[in-house]
Specification:
It is built from 26 helices and no strands. By secondary structure, the protein is an all-alpha fold. The chain has two domains: 394 residues, no CATH class; 105 residues, no CATH class. The radius of gyration is 27 Å and the shape is globular.
Length: 562
């Protein structure tokens, strides 16, 4: 009777339009008050315990990092890199949009944020070169769902907190499925592109890939910091989230300068000589290499007894010296050679031959000439550091992130109270016994889980649905021998599909908003690519090695105590 009353209350309140958090919390309190032997003080104790969950502290930091990285400049840089990489293929601009969504997903951990950031730029670009508006909208709506599958993912943190599994293993488990989903979408686009003879972008050479990579590198390096830091043992997932938030804010305010008092302030002001610009860029690349080397080498070789920080720093300094010599020599030689071409072939040869000797003497002067550019930028960053922290745009990002955090944490705390009620009344045990009595095995159970989540995903927000379903199905899955990390990835993929299925698919509404298309047209546009994600769901469900290979190899299997 308690089971029926609890679920009737939850879904009845949801049907009446009551917010998810209140539906879960009120239903749980009524069950405890009317049927349970627990006292009402257990409600307060559970709410306090849930609010002290260390894992959940990662969520507000990841939300803040996503808010900073959702500025238009980051998305533009990622799209440029993606187009330079695969835009020359048939249907390349559409495939580049998928790749851009994959890269941005690794920064934001949010599907709607990915759709907004990439979609507002990519859809207009695709339409300009001949793609239909519906085709472009369908691609972005589907590719945006990768925001919750490719780590770091907020939904993965929610699942880990709900069932008490490792956030790190969940992040690792999402790597192969996330890449596979993106590749499957790109293959589907390529087939359609060959069939419909969609345009290909001009191949601009490896130079454009390098330039695009340099621009996008500051943003994409966030993924290296988060994942490398966690699996290199530098910090926990919660600490990684805090580092990500600080790094994202610093990059947005002071490196990319897409917001705040330094907005549109160039790093290199007009009137600087070619020699000064080359010297400045050489020192930038050298310093960036040194810190990237220290971070990556620590992740790879920082175990006690393997290497020391002094040894790794010495290797890094060798690389710095090489960069400070090679880059100015190359750029200055190229500049001098282009200016010193003679009238006939022989004079051109002589001029070019004398360039190398002259360049060597100019390298120290070039590096010194770049120092005033450094001085100007460091002075600007110092003077405007505190104004940047309280700037209107910074405050707006912080307020928006806070609103999202409060909403999500209120849902999570009430959902954990719901999970406590389920456990106290032994409801999962009763459902497990019932399903085993009816002959369910792991294969048929996963079918039932997928059907339940696909139906629920049409009507509920992903985190809310996951928090309701996970405490119920998790004990059953453990009884049937299903890997808890594999189960988590299955649930996340179902949440993906739920975000692009009507009537409540959030990505559909977001895509409709940025394109001006009706919801019905967006649903029709997204439908063909949803079929690809259904095939992907089947693969993830019944090929568990896709989810468990990397986490088991690097961290070992998840141990669940019953």
């Amino acid at each position: 009777m308690e089971t029926g009353f609890l679920f009737i209350m939850v879904f009845g309140l949801l049907f009446l339009g009551v917010p998810v958090a209140i539906s879960l919390g009120l239903s749980s309190i009524l069950v405890i008050a009317l049927f349970s032997s627990d006292s009402m003080s257990s409600v307060a104790l559970q709410l306090f315990t849930a609010s002290q969950n260390y894992t959940l502290l990662a969520i507000p930091f990841f939300i803040l990092a996503s808010a900073f990285m959702s500025t238009g400049g980051v998305a533009k840089r990622i799209i440029r890199f993606a187009i330079a990489t695969i835009g020359h293929l048939r249907g390349g601009l559409a495939m580049a949009s998928v790749l851009a969504c994959m890269l941005f997903a690794a920064l934001s951990g949010s599907s709607p944020a990915t759709v907004v950031a990439i979609g507002t730029i990519a859809i207009a670009g695709m339409m300009q070169v001949g793609y239909s508006k519906s085709f472009a909208a369908g691609i972005i709506a589907n590719a945006g769902t990768l925001g919750i599958l490719i780590p770091p993912s907020i939904v993965m943190v929610v699942y880990a907190a709900a069932v008490n599994v490792s956030v790190g293993r969940m992040f690792l488990a999402g790597i192969i499925p996330g890449i596979l989903a993106g590749v499957m979408l790109m293959l589907a686009i390529y087939v359609v592109a060959r069939w419909k003879n969609l345009p290909a972008e001009e191949w601009k050479g490896f130079h454009e890939i390098v330039e695009g990579g340099k621009e996008a590198g500051w943003g994409v390096f966030l993924v290296v910091i988060i994942l490398g830091g966690i699996y290199g043992g530098v910090f926990t997932p919660t600490e990684a989230a805090a580092v990500a938030a600080v790094y994202s804010g610093f990059v947005a305010l002071f490196i990319y300068r897409d917001m705040g008092p330094l907005k549109e302030e160039p790093w290199i002001d007009q009137g600087r000589s070619h020699r000064a610009v080359v010297g400045f860029k050489a020192t930038v690349y050298a310093i960036a290499f040194f810190f990237i080397w220290l971070i990556l080498s620590f992740f790879a070789m920082g175990e006690p007894g393997v290497t020391t920080i002094d040894f790794r720093a010495m290797i890094g300094l060798v690389g710095v010296v090489i960069i400070l010599f090679v880059y100015p020599f190359w750029r200055l030689q190229h500049g001098m050679a282009s200016q010193a071409v003679g009238i006939d072939g022989s004079s051109a040869y002589v001029a070019t031959g004398t360039v190398g000797a002259g360049v060597l003497g100019q390298i120290p002067g070039s590096l010194a000439a770049g120092l005033p550019i450094w001085g100007r930028n460091l002075r600007l960053m110092t003077v405007r550091f505190f104004p940047a922290l309280v700037h209107d745009e910074t405050r707006k990002v912080m307020v928006d992130a806070s609103k999202t955090t409060v909403m999500l944490m209120f849902i999570i705390v009430n959902a954990l109270l719901f999970a406590h009620t389920l456990t106290a009344e032994r409801i999962p045990d009763a459902i497990t016994s019932l399903m085993l009595d009816y002959g369910f095995n792991w294969f048929t159970f996963l079918i039932a889980v997928n059907v339940l989540l696909l139906l629920g995903g049409q009507f509920m927000e992903p985190s809310g649905l996951l928090l309701i379903v996970a405490p119920v199905v998790f004990p059953i899955a453990m009884e049937l021998g299903i890997d808890p990390i594999h189960l988590g990835i299955i649930m996340v993929v179902n949440m993906e599909i739920g975000m692009i299925t009507p009537p409540i698919g959030l990505n559909l509404f977001v895509t409709s908003g940025i394109t001006g298309m009706s919801l019905v047209k967006v649903v029709k546009a997204a439908a063909p690519f949803v079929c690809v994600l259904f095939v992907f769901l089947i693969l993830v469900t019944y090929v568990p090695v896709l989810s468990t290979l990397i986490p088991n190899a690097l961290m070992g299997p998840e141990i669940v105590t019953r």
